[in-house]
């Protein structure tokens, strides 16, 4: 396998599929630190990168890992790292730095039970709010949620494309089950691969952070190509120069960072909707959503499953939620529930209910069917 994975059918684990997808998407730099249950993704890339001209560095910790990936991205490379919850916590400050400097970057977070060391080998969905608000200040990033090995492959490619298009960190929220389960996947003949818009080599860029509109993404000035640019995590003007005391400068910058995601939320959205006319609508994602299909198949409920968790697909949700009883099925104490509840009631839902699971105990299909039945769903 001296080249990116070829079209065809494969039998792969989730982490290996994600690693191969990263290579196919053009990733050629990885910096990471081993942490269960993401380590085999890094181990696979350590074998594959020498074959495809990539560079992999094992750093001293997760702080160094994301810092190295950010640096590589500014040399023009597609860069990524992978971790789990405790490592994501260590990356939080540099996630904010990447958002502020508009650095395209992919972070795979293989979620496990927490807080702290928690359950290193057990699946959880406890990082959902951290993915959105893990760093301080006002910013928007993108988080994806696969529920199969096929989607883990597809959404890793999508993550790189979104990172390149919007110059933003993108998280892939996997979990211990999807990372290690082995399933059949299909690598299609045609795979869309997006590359960031860059300035020509040698061109002086006097205003590298100036966009054509208030919610647009400026072209990328690549280090080492003569596009001289000052990059800082401080509030900066369109030239990249620090300006930390001007309310106007800070407001103009932060609103653009936020709006380039919020105003494109409908384009970014990716949702599976099944049986939308049912009285009960289940919102679920990732590994937990696989147990929901039983209730849908039995005709007891509909399913609203975001593959892109953040930004929340509000417009699509509003189209199907009015008058419904909404049930949220997730493996935490209700992290996605609060956003679902807010928007469901805003758009006319009858009521909103939570079916939480902790400790790596997946919701069983029968439990979901019974829960929906208790809400009056189905026959």
Quick take:
This protein is α/β, with parallel strands linked by helices and 379 residues long. Helices cover 37% and strands 21% of the residues.
Give an overview in words.
With 379 residues, the chain is α/β, with parallel strands linked by helices. It folds into 2 domains: 8-187, Thiamin diphosphate (ThDP)-binding fold, Pyr/PP domains (Rossmann fold), CATH 3.40.50.970; 269-374, 3-Layer(aba) Sandwich (Rossmann fold), CATH 3.40.50. 37% of the residues lie in helices and 21% in strands. The protein has helices spanning 14-24, 39-52, 62-74, 85-101, 128-133, 149-166, 176-180, 247-262, 265-268, 286-289, 293-297, 314-321, 337-346, 365-374; strands at 8-13, 27-32, 55-58, 78-83, 105-113, 119-123, 142-144, 169-175, 182-187, 271-274, 280-284, 302-306, 308-310, 325-330, 351-356. The strands form 3 sheets. Strands 2, 3, 4, 5, 6, 7, 8 and 13 form an 8-stranded mixed beta sheet that branches. The longest helix has 18 residues, at 149-166. The mean pLDDT is 96.
List the SSEs and their pairings.
Elements: E1 8-13, H1 14-24, E2 27-32, H2 39-52, E3 55-58, H3 62-74, E4 78-83, H4 85-101, E5 105-113, E6 119-123, H5 128-133, E7 142-144, H6 149-166, E8 169-175, H7 176-180, E9 182-187, H8 247-262, H9 265-268, E10 271-274, E11 280-284, H10 286-289, H11 293-297, E12 302-306, E13 308-310, H12 314-321, E14 325-330, H13 337-346, E15 351-356, H14 365-374
Parallel strand pairs: 2-3, 2-4, 4-5, 5-8, 7-8, 11-12, 11-14, 14-15
Antiparallel strand pairs: 1-9, 5-6, 7-13, 10-12
Helix pairs in contact: 1-2, 1-6, 3-4
